[in-house]
């Protein structure tokens, strides 16, 4: 890791402080408000990429297979991930349908694809041409991916409906759980400072 | 001596955190370097006010309508919680209660606190207020739980002759409250908390 003794400003309290070199695995905290500033994690780019590729595979599975089935009085219904938004749409709640679609399918999908584009390029040894745009896209989309909340919501519905019928989780539900775990792993592995150092190295 | 970037006249690149120049790759464009989020308080107040107004129909109007051979019923968020509790689903009732009633209310109150103290340039307990801000960012999205529950339940219970569940008007209002409070906390610049705080001496 290159040692940089540049000035940085704490993102939360704006205090100026010097960025110092850290031992491997070390964490730097703001001197004033203790906000985490950066870490030294050399394989950050590769680890994050690996987790996102796994998430991509599982996310495709989660969209193609059924999520839940309900059986009552000899009748059976089933729904996919997309089916949740469709159901809202069919009952006249177009705005909520679009909201659910965006937060559970569109934005997570866009985030996965864009991150793989960026990190894949860095891993292969070149700076992606559309980096500025891609970076903005990820930043914009990330707060709006809510598949973890969807998971909790699904489990709650599972319990709610189990009173009146038999509810069976489908492949997609397990795949979604996997995506969530991989997202968490990727978030833990990602370190902005390592990312920008790699970009700077590749530019030379 | 502790100095803050704004005091030193330095701006921060929003994308990569460098000081005083647009990101090396032009990830940040000219207008992206700024000392503070532009019009932070005004935008936050606007979103917060709208959220407070919609909070009333979100809780008073039903979010789910259930119809079956045995009759029909409409559930608001609170009545849904009560039904779950009475059915013995204490865990689930608590989850929904916390996610759909406690969190949104707490968010509105916390945002009002952050915005009014920042407006009055109060120096009261900056570390605590920063912690509150960080917590807001985390809990905001979890209020969407009930929206997803409604979507899934509606998608599954479609036995037209036997039982049907449909979304109620309260659901849209509730979704709007969640989204608006998310926008409100995203517009707020936490550095405003620290601006009025005197730099300690020495």
Outline the secondary-structure elements.
The complex is a heterodimer of chains A (204) and B (202).
Chain A: E1 7-9, E2 16-18, E3 27-29, E4 36-39, H1 44-64, E5 68-72, E6 75-79, H2 81-90, H3 94-124, H4 131-141, H5 147-161, E7 166-169, H6 171-189, H7 192-203
Antiparallel strand pairs in A: 1-2, 3-4, 5-6, 5-7
Helix pairs in contact in A: 1-3, 1-6, 2-3, 3-4
Chain B: H1 40-60, E1 64-68, E2 71-75, H2 77-86, H3 90-119, H4 126-139, H5 145-156, E3 158-159, E4 163-167, H6 169-187, H7 191-194
Antiparallel strand pairs in B: 1-2, 1-4, 3-4
Helix pairs in contact in B: 1-3, 1-6, 2-3, 3-4, 3-6
The SSE order of chain A reads EEEEHEEHHHHEHH
Could you spell the SSE succession of chain B in H and E letters?
A: HEEHHHHEEHH
- Report helical residue fraction of chain A: 55-70%
* Uncertain parts of chain A: none
Q: How widely separated are the two ends of chain A?
A: 16 Å
Number of strands of chain A: 7
Roughly how much helix do the residues of chain B carry, as a percent range?
A: 40-55%
Rg estimate of chain A, integer Å: 21 Å
Mean pLDDT across residues of chain B = 82
The largest sheet of chain B has its strands arranged as 2-1-4-3
Tally the helices of chain A: what do you get? 7
Q: Could you give the order of strands across the largest sheet of chain A?
A: 6-5-7
Biggest beta-sheet profile of chain B: 4 strands, antiparallel
**What's the count of strands of chain B?**
4
